[in-house]
Amino acid sequence: MTNPVVVALGGGHGLAASLTALRLLTDKITAVVTVADDGGSSGRLRDEFGVLPPGDLRMALAALCDDTEWGRQWRDVLQHRFAGEGELGGHAVGNLLIVSLWDLLGDTVGGLDLVGRLLNARGRVLPMAAVPLNIEANVMGADPVKPFEISTVVGQAEVATTSGRVLSVRLNPREPPACDQAVEAIQAADWVILGPGSWFTSVIPHLLVPGIHDALINTPAKRVLTLNLVMNTVETVGFSAENHLEVLAAHAPELRLDVVLADPGIVRDEALLRRVAADMGAELVLASVGDHRRQGQHDSLRLAAAYRDMIR
Predict the structure, then answer these.
(1) Can you say whether residue 193 is alpha, beta or left, with left for phi > 0 and alpha for psi between -120 and 50 degrees?
(2) In this structure, what are the phi and psi dihedrals at residue 149, rounded to the nearest 5 degrees?
(3) How far apart (Å, rounded) are the C-alpha atoms in residues 111 and 256?
(4) Is 181 helix (H, G, I), strand (E, B) or coil?
(5) Is 283 helix (H, G, I), strand (E, B) or coil?
(6) Strand, coil or helix: what is 272?
(7) CB neighbours of residue 269 within 10 Å
(8) For residues 219 and 189, is the Cβ–Cβ distance under 8 A?
(9) For strand 191-194 and strand 6-10, is the pairing parallel, antiparallel, or unpaired?
(10) What is the side-by-side strand order in the sheet with 29-33?
(11) Which of 45, 70, 136, 275 is the most interior residue, by most CB within 10 Å?
């Protein structure tokens, strides 16, 4: 398939890795980005102006920049972060630019499209929801003194750094409105790619927005789940590859997949992983997609090759 229409869902560095690979294959890319970040520069802007957190949206735009001197220069401008302890300290220039455009235009999607034009982006970036979201998690052992007690942890930053074991997540508001353009993109895609990324705070939240959930279930596109390169993270302590699939299925029982992409380095029991993938309707595809120089990070060329082989 030449120049396929692809939608990639996620947030943060995981989505950026997927987009950096996909832009080598097609320019018909739509990134659908989580909007629950409440820490750092994004959290400050969200609290002060009542806007969507711009940080993950900015990272997705930077990942799609045109590979020219112009595109790379504006990518670096977007990603530049002010130093110091003053009011600008810690803010990324791109976050301020995006929020400024939202203020001027009164149009979230229009502002993101304008930044995309500035970058000559090879694709489009959209939020998954039309309103800022909060993540709440049921966590066992959040208090080290009570290792078997289940409590509620609130906020993306808190869930991502909890010392307990995350059992499940939900959104507040519980049934947020989806971004209409994101729903349309999923329904019109040839391929939809979910992950990699922080499992409970970047990947699963897409399945909890009713409009996105329904679009993922009903789309005629092929659905791919890209597993992370590191299994045992703060959010997924003790998780195997199979556990990642199982918890995804628990949050969206109706979701069917076509392909689960995994690096061989994360597979403990290939037969078991194939069986769990098959339970979700998926074929397991093993491909070496890690960057051997940077532990736990995807190599964009290897990941692009894996996506290319699947799409063909």
Answers:
(1) beta
(2) -85, 135
(3) 33
(4) helix
(5) strand
(6) helix
(7) 12
(8) yes
(9) parallel
(10) 124-127, 29-33, 6-10, 191-194, 222-226, 259-262, 283-286
(11) 45
User: Which of 251, 253, 273, 252 is CA-nearest to residue 262?
Assistant: 273
Q: What is the dihedral of CA 105, 110, 111, 113, to 10 degrees?
A: -150
Per-residue pLDDT reduced to its tens digit, 218-276 = 999 999 999 999 987 888 988 999 999 999 999 999 999 999 999 999 999 999 999 99
Token pair for 312: 């063909």
Inter-residue contact 225 to 261 (CB < 8 Å): yes
Q: Which residue has the tokens 């920049």?
A: 65
H-helix or E-strand spanning residue 8: strand 6-10
- SS3 of residue 266 by DSSP: helix
Render pLDDT for 132-163 as a digit per residue (tens, 0 to 9). Answer: 999 999 999 988 889 899 999 999 999 999 98
Task: Kindly tell me the burial class for residue 250, based on how many C-beta atoms sit within 10 Å of its own C-beta (0-12, 13-18, 19 or more).
Answer: exposed
- Own/partner contacts of 105-108, CB < 8 Å, gap of 24 or more, are 108/52, 108/179
CA nearest to 57, candidates 5, 6, 119, 105: 119
Q: How far is CA 284 from the centre of its chain?
A: 21
Is the separation of the CB atoms in 279 and 250 below 8 Å? no
- The most distant pair of C-alpha atoms in the chain lies apart, rounded to whole Å, by 56
Whole-model pTM: value is 0.96
Residues in contact with 276: Cβ distance below 8 Å, sequence separation at least 6, in sequence order? 242, 245, 246
Going by the DSSP 8-state scheme, the letter that residue 84 receives in this structure is S
C-alpha–C-alpha distance, residues 40 and 38, integer Å = 7
pLDDT, residue 1, reads 64
